[in-house]
Amino acid sequence: MIYHLIIPNDKGWNKPLGDGVLELQTHLLHGVIHCNGFGHLFCVNGIEGGSRYLLGREIMDLWDRICILLNAEKISLEDSSRKHSMDLRLLHGVAFGHSWFGKWGYRCSHESNYLRAIKILGSLELNKIIHDFGCTDRYVKIKKIIGFYRDWSDTKLITLGEVIKIMLSIKSQAPANPPASPSPGPSTRAPLNFKQFSDLITETACEWPTRRMEYAGQVVVDVLKGKGGMLRQELRDAALELHVVMINYHTNKRRHEYIIKEIGKGTLASDLTSQRLSNEVPEQSIIPGVDVYKDLLYLYNSLLLKYPDSGVVAAEIKAALNNKNFVKEYVERNSPCTIQ
Questions:
Q1: Burial environment of residue 99 by CB neighbours within 10 A (0 to 12, 13 to 18, 19 or more)
Q2: Angstrom distance (rounded) from CA 105 to CA 331
């Protein structure tokens, strides 16, 4: 006897189960349990998979309870779970040392190979990662993202696994206390202080002394205090009239250069047209923390899929992704079949 347990997605909840229903991968839950206690979990789909109310972990909790109540012996699954196009058995494994399904006791069929792979990847040191990407066009963004979450964390982050873990934990706490807010409305988040501003300047390849950058920042703050809200060009012109000509941002040769010119107080911005530099601050400047998943996806694609010139890293990534089969063994059954 075979028993299929199906929770259809929200759109199909009030519809009869038609032909091919057992082949669909869009159910919120589809698992099968044989009368001998063996079974297989075909799919789990939470919020990102089409559920309006149930989270993936809530569905898994339900499935696990069903298996216990039905006295299951061994349940298998093929882990193809993804989050924002990222393979969870790799991402979650690097961060937590086990797959997402590992929270419910599922273990890889080739456990030693999988655990070795995710352990090696998770233990990659962040400083070495930044160094290894020093000659690539991804260096600046990777350094900024890592630096941002290092500063945000209450504990010192040393390895790749630690930074991915903190990023996943930030997202799981939504909507409370995100590291940064993209909302243009009022915010209760503490403003950036000068120590943080100094640290930000120090982390970038700025050739000007921090004290001069702080002074330029204070000029901008003073202008905004007096005006409230301004367009960028208006802010620029107002700052010019006070004392600072400009802070210009270049991305040539993968380095950032901040250029400050000082003039006599009271000089009009209109008198400086010929002195203005041609390059503007890029509209899509690197702003880590605005979208945690975008930051996470960038690290995932760069570090876990395209690590530069590293056969070891590539081999361990391949080993982790090739291990898709997971099994959970429950306690010994008391009777041949308890399903009525």
A1: buried
A2: 12
Separation of alpha carbons 214 and 232, rounded Å: 19
pTM flag (> 0.85): no
Q: By the 8 A CB rule, do 9 and 27 touch?
A: yes
Q: What whole-number distance in Å separates Cα of residue 307 and Cα of residue 132? A: 9
What pLDDT score was predicted for residue 87? 93
- The residues of the chain scoring below 50 in pLDDT are 174-178, 181-190, 194, 243-284, 336-340
Q: Which residues contact 171 (CB under 8 A, 6 or more apart)?
A: 292, 293, 296
- Sign of the four-CA dihedral 99, 105, 107, 112: positive
Long-range contacts of 306-309 (CB under 8 A, 24+ apart): 307/132, 308/132, 308/133, 308/135, 308/136, 309/132
Tokens found for residue 245: 């000509």
d(CA 86, CA 288): 19
Give me the pLDDT at residue 9, please: 87
Tokens of 315: 């081999």
